[in-house]
Amino acid sequence: MNATCYAGVIRISGSHTKTFEDKLIVESRVDIWLNGEKLIGLIATPLELEALVVGYLISEQIISSYREIITIAYEGDGIIRMDITAKKVNHSSIARLNTEAVMISGCGKGHTANIDPEKMATVVNQSNYRISAMQISKAMEGFMEHCKLYVQTGAVHTALLIFEDSSYLVAEDLAQHNTIDKVMGKACIEGKDVNHAILLLSGRLSSEMVAKAVMHGVPIVASRTSATCLGVKIAEKFGITLVGFVRGERMNLYTMPERILVS
């Protein structure tokens, strides 16, 4: 499946016009079927869909780990059907998703039942991972090197997960919440320890983005942009270090500043 397509564009610059073929991002509907029943439909970039599904199911607490998945298969083009067979499915989480889900503020369409801090059944992040402010600055300086689809289209978000050994995973999608599910899904599939990692995001640190970090156990989340009030409250409640406005050597520490070393 292609993640991009081309469209004819007329560019206006003052009194001049230019006609050319522009590269656009593809939006696909992705229907997730779990054990023979439709769970949800997402709008996503048709790349790395297995990782997207794994990350989504774990972040919504429908399964506890990648080991619970038996098979994943998909078919279709315009509307993509993802069929997942899994054991030990949390039916209460599915019921909550169906009855209490809200539309989230990320780009694209999606909803979640896990942005209410009173209902996020998880433990406070106890990670002792620490990183220097300079390391965060350098990581953000190189962030654009990983935004290949953004460079081509200007229409997607990026999530970059950097581990203690400097290895990393990256995901792009038109919706930022999908990028987090994708990159976390990759980490789950590869058996990576995210408890000693930092998650860099291209967009705002809103409630659903922080909630997904909580569900997956990432201790530090950073972005070039700001946090929201609920995003900060969730990070504070569940022990997530939240870093915003990372630009050059400047950054704002909203919560759990002890994980960030300042020289």
Report the portion of residues in β strands: 35-45%
Radius of gyration: 19 Å
- How does the helix and strand content classify structurally? alpha/beta
Strands, total number: 16
Order of helices and strands: EEEEHEEHEEEHHEEHEHEHEEE
- Portion in helices: 25-40%
The coarse silhouette is: globular
CATH topology of the largest domain, anyone? Cytidine Deaminase, domain 2
Please tell me the CATH architecture of the largest domain by its name. 3-Layer(aba) Sandwich
Number of helices: 7
What integer is the average pLDDT?
89
Distance between the termini: 47 Å
Q: Give the biggest sheet.
A: 6 strands, mixed
Order of the strands making up the biggest sheet: 11-10-12-13-14-15
- Which spans of ≥5 residues are poorly predicted at pLDDT below 50? 102-109
Fourth-level CATH superfamily of the largest domain = Cytidine Deaminase, domain 2
